Every structure is written in C-alpha cells, then in structure tokens.
C-alpha cells in the first residue's frame, strides 16, 4: 500500500490549525481583560497628569513638563523611582505588622477582581453573591492601613493610618449603599 505524502501533509497542517485555534481561543478570552486593564491604566495616567497640570496652573508654578513632551512621562518616572526606592523598616516598631499591612490592602483589592465579569462567559468566580462578596472583600483594605500605621510604633503614623482608614470607610459607605440599592432593585 502506497501512502500519498500530500495527504499526510494535509493531515498535519489540519492538526496544526486545530492547535492554533485553541491558542487563539485562549488569547481571545484574555483580550477583554487586557483591554479593561489598559483602559483603566491610561485613564489613571491621564487623571494624574491633569491633576498636576491644573494644580500647577492654580498655584502659578511650573508643572511637570520636563519629563517627556508636556510632562507625559512624569508618571513613568515616578513609578520607576518608587520601584527602586529603599525599603525602610521602623527600628522600634512591629516589622511584621508594618510589612503585612500594605499586603493585606493590595491583596483584598486584587481579590475583589475575582467576581467582576470581564466577558459574557468570563468570570473568575461565578457566585450568586458576587456583589456582596465584592463589598466584603474590598472592606478589608482599611484593616491593612491600620496595621501599617500601628506597626510603625509612631503616634503620627498611627494617626495617619487612622485617617486613611476613616477616609476609605467614608468612601465605601455611599458606594455600598448605591450598589446595594441597585442590586435590591434588580433582584426579583
């Protein structure tokens, strides 16, 4: 029996196309998440740039205009500076609390993304209590702020942590009331 090599090549190319379809499917699943994160990042950069330009105009001083054209790269410079900044720990404070506080605040915010639907069939944790879980998880962030302030063993840092936690809670209460009123209206 003689096997035609063109048939074997056709079969192999079809198999490669099927594997590429799976790869393209995975890419298209991650595409809405990438677009959302990119849009939020660009929006934050524009808002920070506008805030600096408007503040400079109000205070009649020079704004961030030396890092790139019109100061657009100032946020990148600030992020690079923050990345290479030295990690200082308080000598008389509780280093575990001081280090765990920011981690708890950031992890609670990142966990709240698990219930946000990024697409029609793309939800990391499809729960029936998604909104309530989002509110509960995001309400843990002020505890991290308090832990950082208390762990420094400095009364001014502790007062700053209390102020940041109170400010965070004061933003969460109206947000929670708005979200819960909408969810109560939708639930039948």
From TrEMBL:
<keyword id="KW-0812">Transmembrane</keyword>
<feature type="transmembrane region" description="Helical">
    <location>
        <begin position="97"/>
        <end position="116"/>
    </location>
</feature>
<protein>
    <recommendedName>
        <fullName>NADH-plastoquinone oxidoreductase subunit 1</fullName>
    </recommendedName>
</protein>
<feature type="transmembrane region" description="Helical">
    <location>
        <begin position="169"/>
        <end position="187"/>
    </location>
</feature>
<dbReference type="Pfam" id="PF00146">
    <property type="entry name" value="NADHdh"/>
</dbReference>
<feature type="transmembrane region" description="Helical">
    <location>
        <begin position="23"/>
        <end position="50"/>
    </location>
</feature>
<dbReference type="GO" id="GO:0005886">
    <property type="term" value="C:plasma membrane"/>
</dbReference>
<comment type="similarity">
    <text>Belongs to the complex I subunit 1 family.</text>
</comment>
<keyword id="KW-0520">NAD</keyword>
<dbReference type="GO" id="GO:0003954">
    <property type="term" value="F:NADH dehydrogenase activity"/>
</dbReference>
<feature type="transmembrane region" description="Helical">
    <location>
        <begin position="122"/>
        <end position="148"/>
    </location>
</feature>
<dbReference type="InterPro" id="IPR018086">
    <property type="entry name" value="NADH_UbQ_OxRdtase_su1_CS"/>
</dbReference>
<dbReference type="GO" id="GO:0009060">
    <property type="term" value="P:aerobic respiration"/>
</dbReference>
<dbReference type="InterPro" id="IPR001694">
    <property type="entry name" value="NADH_UbQ_OxRdtase_su1/FPO"/>
</dbReference>
<keyword id="KW-0472">Membrane</keyword>
<keyword id="KW-1133">Transmembrane helix</keyword>
């Amino acid at each position: 029996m003689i096997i035609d090599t063109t048939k074997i090549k056709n079969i192999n190319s079809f198999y490669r196309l099927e594997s590429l379809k799976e790869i393209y499917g995975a890419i298209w699943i991650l595409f809405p998440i990438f677009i959302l994160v990119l849009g939020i990042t660009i929006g934050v950069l524009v808002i920070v740039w506008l805030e600096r330009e408007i503040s400079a105009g109000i205070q009649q001083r020079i704004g961030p205009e030396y890092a790139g054209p019109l100061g657009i790269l100032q946020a990148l410079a600030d992020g690079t500076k923050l990345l290479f900044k030295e990690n200082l720990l308080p000598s008389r404070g509780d280093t575990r609390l001081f280090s765990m506080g920011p981690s708890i605040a950031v992890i609670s915010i990142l966990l709240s993304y698990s219930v946000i639907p990024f697409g029609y069939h793309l939800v990391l944790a499809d729960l029936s209590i998604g909104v309530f879980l989002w509110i509960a998880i995001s309400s843990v962030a002020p505890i991290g702020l308090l832990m950082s302030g208390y762990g420094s063993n400095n009364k001014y840092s502790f007062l700053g942590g209390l102020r940041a936690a109170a400010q965070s809670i004061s933003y969460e209460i109206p947000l929670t009331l708005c979200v819960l009123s909408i969810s109560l209206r939708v639930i039948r």
